[in-house]
Amino acid sequence: MSGADNVVWLGTPAFPEAARTALADTRLRVNLRRATGTIRDKRLAVAAELEDWEELRETAATIKRHTLRHLDHHLLRLEKAVTAAGGVVHPSPRPCAAPVTTPAR
Prior knowledge:
This protein is mainly α and 105 residues long.
């Protein structure tokens, strides 16, 4: 890994130490459990309001798969649109990373 992939902010502990500290924090664990439960309950309540929830999920998953399968095409269209609007698209130094765009001013 290069330095950019393995960022550690100055003064922050390494992950294993930070994880041990967080796991020992009872209040943090209680709050996280409560927040997670609240989010889950709200999601279930909203899903129950829709008769076709599963169909909507499947449709969204299909759209996502299609988009990812054709991501190169979508990124080229994005690059054209950004360039046409006066922005600059900076190619990634790594082929696996998406380009970074600078908005037009």
